[in-house]
Amino acid sequence: MERSLLRPALKSEIEAAITSAVQRSDPACAKFLGAFIAECEPNAAGAGWILKGVRYGAAPRDKCDVALATITAKMQTQYVILKPTRDVPAGS
């Protein structure tokens, strides 16, 4: 997939989207706490990020892992990390 077709989003927004999708994927995953991503070289899907870690909380790992694999693969075809820009004060 061409990177220009990917929607730019902040790293925190992608992590929140993954977390929310896993929590909604199965009632048993409702207590899933979060997913963490890291930037990397663009992969075949075009995304320049990978799943770096997860916090399961009281959610069952086996069910959440199945959801994570599917959700992460899908979102890698949808999102690219948007690097936040910093405003440079005038005269700097």
Label this structure with key terms:
single chain, two-stranded parallel ribbon, 92 residues, alpha+beta
Describe the structure.
The chain has one domain (3-81). Helices cover 33% and strands 21% of the residues. It has 2 helices and 4 strands; from the N terminus they run βαββαβ. The strands form 2 sheets. A two-stranded parallel sheet has the order 1-4. Strands 2-3 form a two-stranded antiparallel sheet. Helix 1 (11-25) crosses helix 2 (61-75). The model has no long low-confidence stretch (mean pLDDT 88).
- The fraction of residues in strands falls at 15-25%
Low-confidence stretches: none
The value of Rg in angstroms is 15 Å
Q: Helix and strand succession?
A: EHEEHE
Number of helical runs?
Answer: 2
The main pleated sheet reads as: 2 strands, parallel
Query: What is the straight-line distance between the termini?
Result: 39 Å
- Count of individual domains: 1
